Amino acid sequence: MEELEKLREKIDLIDEEIIERLYVRTDLSKKIGKIKKDMGKDVMDGPRENIVKNQWEELSKTHDLPADKIVQILDIILSISRSEQEKV
Q1: pLDDT of residue 11 exceeding 90
Q2: Other C-beta atoms lying within 10 Å of the C-beta of residue 71
Q3: What domains can you pick out in the chain, each with its CATH number?
Q4: What is the per-residue pLDDT for 23?
Q5: Nearest one of 84, 76, 78, 80 to 37, comparing CA atoms
Q6: Which of 32, 42, 73, 75 is buried most deeply by CB count within 10 Å?
Q7: Is the entire prediction scored with pTM above 0.70?
Q8: Residue 29, class by beta-carbon neighbours within 10 Å (0-12 exposed, 13-18 middle, 19+ buried)?
């Protein structure tokens, strides 16, 4: 049982790191949204999103993770980013 708890504690720490990194990513997205607005660009940038999706797919394969599920996670993250950019 002790090993189980130690492993769960490690996962909890990783979860905290993930949330912190998502916060940083979202903050950067807001800054990008401001720049896009100043340049008269749309929030949605399909070509850029495709590049990021391809990168995530490749990274997931490198780490032996299911690419389809990883891209689903990215889709949610991109949706959050677009929502935050629209608020700017």
Answers
A1: yes
A2: 16
A3: 2-87 (1.20.59.10)
A4: 98
A5: 84
A6: 32
A7: yes
A8: buried
Whose tokens are 């490198």? That residue is 62
pLDDT for the residue 87: 94
Percent helix / strand / coil, the chain, rounded to 5:
85, 0, 15
Q: Could you write out the DSSP letters of every residue in 30-59? A: HHHHHHHHHHT--S--HHHHHHHHHHHHHH
Let me know: does 88 contact 34? Beta carbons within 8 Å.
yes
pLDDT one-digit tens code per residue, 15-61: 999 999 999 999 999 999 999 999 999 999 999 999 999 999 999 99
CA nearest 22: which of 87, 70, 66, 76?
76
3-state secondary structure of 16: helix
